[in-house]
Design a protein that fits this description.
three-stranded mixed beta sheet; globular; 7 strands; four-stranded mixed beta sheet; alpha/beta
Length: about 170
């Protein structure tokens, strides 16, 4: 089905904005796994950024509202947790939008082999460039920012504070 605006269900879902990081769409964030038109309805499958994501119900409601407004129905939103979401799923456009909004995008996530995950009590060491001036001379001053997936950092060159989306 294509709506009167010429948008298919996938196109409609691709424009739904993330409730916690409004500079990103859910598609840019990589949480949209599939959009399937089935008969008269649509089933959207999503993988939240982590299993305890407080925005999951808002994401589902926004997807339903966007598709219903576009003329689709009934709308079902399924949540899957495997494979687990990774910051590697953020699109290049999403990474650029994070930087434009003053949030340092994540680097590539560390690959783990199957089995037990080693526990370390130290923050990972990585170079995070300042999204304001581009300097690699930054420091973390809080491992947790306004959302669980961000850390708070400051640039030692331009002295500007900024958020960094952590690699997951």
């Amino acid at each position: 089905m294509v709506t009167a605006t010429g948008l298919g269900a996938r196109d409609v879902v691709a424009e739904v904005v993330d409730p916690e990081m409004p500079m990103l769409t859910l598609d840019d964030l990589g949480v949209i796994r599939s959009v399937d038109e089935d008969g008269d309805g649509v089933t959207v499958t999503i993988t939240p950024t982590y299993s305890g994501c407080p925005a999951i119900e808002e994401m589902k409601a926004d997807i339903r509202r966007s598709l219903t407004t576009a003329g689709y129905g009934p709308v079902r939103v399924r949540t899957v947790f495997s494979p687990a979401w990774s910051t590697d799923w953020i699109s290049e456009r999403g990474r650029a939008r994070l930087a434009e909004a003053g949030v340092a995008p994540p680097g590539r996530a560390e690959r783990h082999t199957p089995g037990p995950v080693p526990l370390t009590l130290e923050a990972p060491s990585s170079v995070v460039r300042c999204p304001q001036c581009g300097s690699p001379a930054t420091e973390e001053f809080s491992r947790f920012g306004p959302t669980a997936c961000t850390a708070l950092r400051r640039c030692t060159e331009c002295r500007e504070p900024f958020e960094h989306m952590k690699e997951i």
